[in-house]
Amino acid sequence: MAPVHGYWNLRGYGQPIRLLLAHAGVEYEDRRYNLKGEAPNYDRSEWLADKFNLGLDFPNCPYYIDGDVKISQTFAILKYLGRKYGLAPKTEAEHIRVDLIEAEAMDIRTKWSSTCYNPDFENLREDFIKNFINKCKELSAFLGKHKYFAGETLTYVDFLMYELLDIHSTLEPKVLEGFDNLIAFHDRIRSLENVAAYMKSDKFLKWPLNGPMAKYGGK
Ligand SMILES: N[C@@H](CCC(=O)N[C@@H](CS)C(=O)NCC(=O)O)C(=O)O
C-alpha cells in the first residue's frame, strides 16, 4: 500500500513534508482534511473521525504511515524521510548545522503562527516583518556561499527553510530583498526537477497557507 501523509487541506506544517516527498519521487496518498462550518465553530469532524484510529502513538497531524511505521510530529516525519531518502546530514559538521536550522525553523514557524492567528495581526504585522528581516540577516550569514543549509548536501531542513522563506515572502515580497544567497537558495529548491514538476501539477497546494481562522493566509 502507498504511504499516506495526512494533514489539513492547507500548507502549514504539512507542506515541507509534501515538498520532500515530491523531491524524493515518492508515490503516496496526500490525505487532506477539511475544516467545515464557519468561525468560530469550525467543525473538525473529518479529522476526528481518523485521529484515534490510525495506530498513532501520539495522534496528531501531520502524520505519516509507511507500512509498519506510523508516526506524527513534523520533525520525526522529516527525519525519518530524510534517513530513508538520503536527505539526512552525514558528517558531524552537517549534523550541527542541520540541528541549528531545525531549531531556528521551529522558532520561525511558532512566531509565524502566533502572529498570523492573532486577532491583532494588522497591528503586529510591521514589527513581525522587521523581526523576520533581522532573522534573514542571520540566515543569510549562516548560509554564506553554501548551496544548502547543511553545506553542500541537500537535507530535510532545506524543505523547511524553503517553505518558511516562501510564506514570509508571500506576506511581504520585500523580506528577501538584498539577501541574494537566500533568493538563490529559494530558487534552487523550487527548481529541483521533481519539485518544479510538482509545483506545476494539480497536486500542488498553493493556498491557503494557514487555517481559516487565521487573520492572514487562511482565506
Ligand atoms: N508538534 C506537532 C504539532 C502539530 C499540530 O499542532 N497540528 C495541528 C495543525 S498545525 C493540529 O490541528 N493538530 C490536530 C489535533 O491536535 O488534533 C508537530 O510538529 O507536528
TrEMBL record:
The keyword DNA-binding does not apply. InterPro entries: Glutathione-S-Trfase_C-like, Glutathione-S-Trfase_C_sf, Glutathione_S-Trfase, Glutathione_S-Trfase_N, GST_C, GST_mu, GST_superfamily, Thioredoxin-like_sf. GO terms for molecular function: glutathione transferase activity; identical protein binding. Residues 1-89 form the GST N-terminal domain. Signal peptide: none annotated. One of its GO terms (biological process) is glutathione metabolic process. Residues 91-209 form the GST C-terminal domain. Keywords: Transferase. Its EC number is 2.5.1.18. Belongs to the GST superfamily. Mu family. PANTHER family: GLUTATHIONE S-TRANSFERASE, S-TRANSFERASE, PUTATIVE-RELATED. This is glutathione transferase. It comes from Diaphanosoma celebensis. The gene is GST-mu.
